[in-house]
Amino acid sequence: MNNKAKNNSINIPKKAMFGIAPAIGIIAVLVARHKAPEVLLFLIGIFCGVIIGVNWIKGQK
């Protein structure tokens, strides 16, 4: 039972938080200014960056 509880938690590294926090702020500002297309493009850019980064890290190993 204790093992199952450990699997339900997510550990986010401190370095990742330094990248996630500004992105959340930028999204909040864009949403507050009613700029939905810019938010969509920003999220697509983040998604593509994550995919490129993951594939690059896999290629380094």
In words, what does this structure look like?
The protein is mainly alpha-helical and 61 residues long. It has a domain at 36-61. Helices cover 82% and strands 0% of the residues. The chain contains three helices and no strands. It has helices at residues 2-7, 14-32, 36-60. The protein is extended and about 40 Å long. The model has no long low-confidence stretch (mean pLDDT 84).
End-to-end separation: 34 Å
Largest sheet, described in full?
none
So what's the oligomer here?
Answer: single chain
- Which spans of ≥5 residues are poorly predicted at pLDDT below 50? none
What's the Cα radius of gyration? 16 Å
The overall strand count is: 0
Label this structure with key terms.
61 residues; mainly alpha; 3 helices; 82% helix; 0% strand; extended
List the helices and strands and how they pair.
Layout (H helix, E strand, L loop, with lengths): L1 H6 L6 H19 L3 H25 L1
Task: Write a brief structural summary.
The chain has 61 residues and is an all-alpha fold. Helices cover 82% and strands 0% of the residues.
